[in-house]
Amino acid sequence: MKDITLKEIATKLGISITTVSKALKGYPDVSEKTRNSVLELAKSLHFTPNSFAVNLRTKESRTIGLVIPEVVHHFFSNVINGIIDEAEKNNYLVIIVQSGESLALEIKQIELLLNKRVDGIIISLSNESNDDEHLRQILAREIPLVMFDKISKLIKCSKVIINDQKAAFEATQHLIDNGCKKIVHIRGPVNPQNAIDRFLGYKKALEKNNIPYNSNLVYTCKNVTFDEGKEFAEKIIQDHPDVDGIFAVTDLVAVGVLDYFNKVNIKVPNQVKLIGFSNWFMSQVITPKLSTVDQPSYEMGVQSFHLLMEEMNARKESKPFTIKTIELATSIIERESSFVNQ
Amino acid sequence: MKDITLKEIATKLGISITTVSKALKGYPDVSEKTRNSVLELAKSLHFTPNSFAVNLRTKESRTIGLVIPEVVHHFFSNVINGIIDEAEKNNYLVIIVQSGESLALEIKQIELLLNKRVDGIIISLSNESNDDEHLRQILAREIPLVMFDKISKLIKCSKVIINDQKAAFEATQHLIDNGCKKIVHIRGPVNPQNAIDRFLGYKKALEKNNIPYNSNLVYTCKNVTFDEGKEFAEKIIQDHPDVDGIFAVTDLVAVGVLDYFNKVNIKVPNQVKLIGFSNWFMSQVITPKLSTVDQPSYEMGVQSFHLLMEEMNARKESKPFTIKTIELATSIIERESSFVNQ
């Protein structure tokens, strides 16, 4: 890259570097004529102030890091959208790294971001993350940190979450209200807090309705994929031919279940009622349309950025900052997969 | 952020800054004992080499910029995935900015990336982009540039594309081979080269099969959305009740068409055959499953990053670099929406 310096502009115009700098910043003690020639020449030379130099002075990079499990994912891509939109409005850039649900990669990516001197980090943990050392490193370096969706309860930082337990309770209750008595839960992996909470919500709803909890009715995803949904659907019907309701940890898995049921002609909702989680776009276009839990993903991104910015600003001004947890509301979206029109 | 310097480590250990620096870099002329104490202290202080200083010296930021219309988009999120994966393997970070299909925002975002001193830029143009000045700015500053998917023919840089005209020809031919005679094309907006090329491919296939081209059978998207697909479907059936085939510029629009047809009980494929473009995930889970053109989106990201890296490396070593255009193969995926099993 060609680096045009203030000095080159100054030399070409036969004026001092200070005058060039003042002209570019619009200081009033530079004549209009001089300012115009400086601006013109700067433009024709494609001059931009050296942002690394600026960084050294202000210690700000105006860049934040975002660590997510994967980009190709309805929920996460919507969160990214919210974060990038807000960052743009506030003149920040966003470096996005993927952990691919791997703890080792998550640790490496965070180190890269820290070396890059980002002003703050937003993260949703990988499914493997059960070790918090790399997160404590962020705090030890006094870098503002915000977690969303897949969080660690042990790390003291701002968080944007939904009440997964309550939302899962409502989803299960919705199946019970529509007559289900033998309800399978396809849960997320063992580590993530949100998978644990959704499982607990399912269990609580059964309890409250005096339906005995049966651990054989709980299937645990490894990768939370469409294919896992299909495989579990086949297994569920073999294990429990009389199942009448399924609550899946996310829509992608529920759509896999539906795909298998459609193939082998098991009627949804007549024989089995089905509800997902997260309201992926495709859930409204499949047949039958999938009932689900609406999770405000874009808003989650917006709020995560705001919390991060509050903390970044507080630190910049050496003001105290109290970490916060924002809980966003969810709601049940009733579609065709979970109730029979009488 | 707390900044730990080499000097602090040197002072604490009573050795020279040079020795600290050498110890951290693993130089053999530092005793193992000294190296160990330096590494230990550096670790306990959460020391990282100052990456901005490194940048000033090497003039490399090891960061690239990616400008795309939107993140929440099956095709683009897959390309992002390919780019981030490859960047990760090669020790680069990726700043992602969205143009939101707006030329003004695209211009602004590119300026931000240039000010950030990214080592290179990968871009897919917004639908509004018909002015190339901001792209010429990138070249004028000698920043490596790669375009993919939505490109400008006027800008001389490396490109990763598919043959949109050929792919659209094949999609239309597929409908004709399955008996369609009155084929509607729902095309993309006026500006993007790929929308133009897909339209031309449609037209060529009609010509080759002696089906007269009728401009009334072409509908032009503004925003290329699911809702536009639904609206066009309603209009198409009103305007041309005898339509027997539809080729949509992308799966999202085709799924909108299908959604409307399912609602009003117009049978796909029996009454109207339908083919999309891009092979979105949902196309394989809707009813009927959507035929489409497979576009290697992940591979497009990988190749874009490789081309960019080749150019960045060439410049770093002041070697000549010849821009290239890589054309990736597409294929027709036949599913239920476009042919009737005899």
Q: How is the CATH topology of the largest domain in chain A named?
A: Rossmann fold
Low-pLDDT windows of residues of chain A: none
Total domain count of chain A: 3
- Most extensive contact: A-B, 58 and 59 residues
User: Given the structure, what is the number of helices of chain A?
Assistant: 12
**What is the total tally of β strands of chain A?**
12
Helix content of chain A: 40-55%
Estimated radius of gyration of chain A: 26 Å
Q: How can the largest sheet of chain A be summarized?
A: 6 strands, parallel
**What structural class is derived from the secondary structure elements of chain A?**
alpha/beta
| Form type of chain A | elongated
Portion of residues in beta strands of chain A equals: 5-15%
CATH superfamily of the largest domain in chain A: Response regulator
CATH architecture tag of the largest domain in chain A:
3-Layer(aba) Sandwich
Physical arrangement of strands within the biggest beta sheet of chain A: 2-1-3-4-5-11
Regarding quaternary structure, what we see is homodimer
State the end-to-end distance of chain A: 70 Å
Sketch the topology of chain A as an H/E string, one letter per element.
HHHHEHEHEHEEHEHEHEHEEHEE
Average residue-wise pLDDT of chain A:
91
Explain the overall architecture.
The structure is a homodimer of 342-residue chains. Chain A is of the alpha/beta class and 342 residues long. The first copy, chain A, folds into 3 domains: 6-49, 434 Repressor (Amino-terminal Domain) (Orthogonal Bundle); 59-162 and 297-328, Rossmann fold (3-Layer(aba) Sandwich), CATH 3.40.50; 164-294, 3-Layer(aba) Sandwich (Rossmann fold). Helices cover 44% and strands 15% of the residues of chain A. Chain A contains 12 helices and 12 strands. Chain A has a 6-stranded parallel sheet. In chain A, strands 7-6-8-9 form a 4-stranded parallel sheet, sandwiched between helices. Chain A has a two-stranded antiparallel ribbon with strand order 10-12. In chain A, strand 6 (183-187), helix 9 (193-208) and strand 7 (218-220) form a beta-alpha-beta unit. In chain A, helix 8 (164-177) packs parallel to helix 9 (193-208). The longest helix of chain A has 20 residues, at 297-316. Chain A starts with 5 loop residues before the first helix and ends in a 9-residue tail after the last strand. The mean pLDDT of chain A is 91. Chains A and B meet through helix 4, helix 5, strand 2, helix 6 and helix 11 of A and helix 4, helix 5, strand 2, helix 6 and helix 11 of B.
